[in-house]
Amino acid sequence: MLDEPTRTAILKLKAAGHGTRAIARALAVARASVRRVIASGEVAPPPLIRPELAEAQRERILELYARYQGHLGRVHEELLARGVELSYPALTAFCRKHGIGAPPPPPAGHYTFAAGEEMQHDTSPHAAMIGGRLTPLQSASVVLCYSRLIFFQHYPRFTRFECKAFLTEAILYFGGAAARCMVDNSHVIVAAGTGPTMIPAPEMAAFAERFGFTFKAHKVGDANRSARVEAPFHRIDKAFLVGSMFTDWRDLNARARERCDTWNATFSPKLHASRRELFAAERLHLKPLPLYVPEVYQLHTRIVDAEGYVHLNRNRYSAPWRLIGRTLEVRETLERIELYEGPRRVAAHQRVYEPLDVRLTDPAHRPPRGQGLARHPQPAPEELEMLAVEPQVANYLAALKRQIGDRRAPLRRLLSMLQEYPREAFLAALRQAEHYRLFDLDRLERMVLREIAEEYFVLTLTPEGRDD
Question: pTM for the whole thing?
Answer without folding.
Answer: 0.64
